[in-house]
Specification:
The chain is an alpha+beta fold. 38% of the residues lie in helices and 28% in strands. The chain is built from six helices and nine strands, in the order αβββααββαβαββαβ. The longest helix has 34 residues. It is globular.
């Protein structure tokens, strides 16, 4: 009688241990997926197409656009992007946030000219990203003309701001690729940026493309 009672209890314990082990394994698998490199499958780089894009702004819109933005990326036949280098030309405005908020008069106030060098340095530090397979650099430049500033961000005062984004999904983790996609406002599928969403984002820059 005692043996009959013990056997079912043992079976229940084994089943519970098995479920617990399976649950823990599932959580660990997800954790590994987020932190492993995206391209675990074998991909022949010879099968990837290199696409280069440059701006071709219509004459009527040249005054309202900063030119010089370019992109180069590799993509497979399924439309998944493996590497990209995005050179974005834009402008940054040195707004004095505290003074603008305190004034509460609807006007935008800028920091003093003496504060500009330090502001540029701080902006470059804030935007810098250096991860395995993914990097972002910002290079601040000279003051733009009023027309260029308005084209850059709708303000009368702005300084040249060149962003360089570089992604190599052969080296980057899945999380890093998602971070890059979120920054560029594009979509991912199967842990890759999709070419469709990338070109959608680039419509703003009047891109024309060549394939190699």
């Amino acid at each position: 009688m005692q043996l009959k009672k013990i056997i079912p209890v043992c079976l229940v314990l084994v089943m519970l241990c098995g479920c617990s082990s399976s649950s823990t394994s599932s959580k660990n698998d997800k954790k590994v997926d987020d932190n492993t490199t995206s391209t675990s499958e074998t991909v022949d780089t010879k099968d990837l197409i290199t696409v280069k894009g440059t701006m071709n702004v219509p004459e009527d819109f040249k005054s309202s656009n900063l030119e010089g933005t370019t992109i180069e990326y590799t993509v497979d036949k399924e439309g998944y992007v493996y590497t990209l280098n995005f050179h974005k030309v834009s402008g940054e405005t040195p707004i004095d946030g505290d003074k603008t908020a305190d004034a509460n008069d609807g006007k935008v106030y800028y920091i003093s000219e003496s504060e500009i060098p330090n502001w540029k340095t701080e902006r470059e530090k804030e935007e810098k990203i250096s991860k395995k397979g993914y990097s972002v650099t910002l290079t601040m430049g000279d003051e733009l003309t009023k027309e260029q500033a308005m084209a850059a961000n709708g303000e009368e005062t702005a300084y040249s701001a060149i962003y360089d984004y570089s992604l190599d999904s052969f080296k980057a983790t899945n999380k890093t690729i998602k971070d890059c996609a979120d920054t560029l406002d594009v979509k991912t599928k199967n842990n890759k940026i999709t070419e469709k969403s990338l070109k959608k984002m680039l419509e703003y820059y009047y891109m024309v493309y060549t394939n190699e």
